[in-house]
Predict the structure.
Amino acid sequence: MKTVYHPLTTVLLGALCACVDGAEPEHTAAYGVRWKLVVDEVADYLAPCERLGLARGLDAHDFDDVFPYRAMKRCNVLEREGASALVTYEGESGFSLDGRNGNVFVEIPKHYVRRYRADGYEYRYVSAGQLPGFVVDPAFVEDGRELDRIYVSAYEACIRDGKMWSISDVYPTTDCTRPQYRAYARANGIGYGILDLRTLNMLQNLFLVEYAERDSQGALGRGWGKIHQPAKGMLRCTLAETGVNRIVVSDWRATLIQRFFIGSAIQMVDYETHRVLVTGRTIVRVDLDTPGPGRTAVYFDGAPLDTTTGMVLGGAAQKTGWANALTVPSGHTANNGGGRDASYRNAVRYRHIENLWGNVWHFIDGLNLRDGVSYACSSMRNYESGVTTGSYVQVARKQAIQTDNGTVGGDRERHYMKNLVFDPRLPGLALPEDYVNQGEASVPHAQTSSRLGSDTLRHHNFGDYYYLSRKATCYVHGGGFDHYWRCGLFTMRGWATDTARWYLYGARMIHKPL
């Protein structure tokens, strides 16, 4: 078998060719999963995953004893001038969630993977050691060097003193651009950056094998997805006040207390421009008919401020650390706010990593878009916006363009993701490739035959919506606090640009010991 070195990863060409062209024996010494590639948009879309190899007969909780899952643990990484970084694991003296002992990361050890397609299925495997046809997961290879471990932030990023932090009990920083987030992460030192495609693909692969499920919301929890987004048409301030901890509105509805529950984060934006005016506040109480009939006063914490009638009240990204209450590595917190959508108001955690979906969209690095074409880079030192040459290599597979947001819960919400990109040169790279119901202007949301409507689409296959525009230059991932059932581990919105900033756009930090 000939070993071929590619700029993005090392692949075993003989194994890849064999598996693409036909079936091969199941890997009985590794943990695996397979699922039907979607050709028939009903039968294949609804087909479940199947566990393979050592994963046969296991449930997700059994993976607490399986490598690398059992070795994924929270830690502090403290950079020291003139010395190597100090790593303190949870349970050891000095470990802290608040930044006193460095950033809070999840350490993930090097492991081996295999991904291929055969006989109408996609196959994924994870192994602790080298097996025929397996490679070190590309997330652990930088400039040809294999890393024994890498780190993913336990929390969404916040910015303090010009640096990116991963700590508990803070509001995630939003409203910055991808280049700005990248610079804030790099300010921590060499080997720091924002979540890149290779690391995301690694986490997705681990999840797929562990849960034998593609629908992350169904498997693990729905996350922060039904918080009220600021909207020009409602909750405008109707009483200007000076030095107060409240905002007064006149169009409050009883059901809004579900999305503005006590303890939830809020912000105020400009009525005309939607520019963020106030953020980083938490609701402490809501008084109806205050300061008079027909008005509602929403009280919040923090320093008093001046309110104006040019302000609009809206929800915001929730504080980090909600999932600290969990006693298990993966799961979701209690639901909040009540009502039928309460299950879309919780914090999710996968292997100690909080809010991989929901709350804020995370910019993805290591991949640039130009005219609907993806270009991937394998060296975090060379990540740069707008580059499509040199270290950036064009992904061979063509991705479908889709720019219709549809109607959430309606008949036009029909373009859910179908399959993932598979490029034999880059077998670890997995991007959304295409979507169902192409050419259909609408599909009845409750339809279950001939074509599937959104009521079914969102609970099967990946259950995530498909987005790609020719105008985009980068991806954001996961879904924001208003993204409802479209949030997910495989949700990738290729509509963003490197100049875009929004109160729904945030970041997640990674660290690789280079």
Observations:
- The chain has a mean pLDDT of 95.
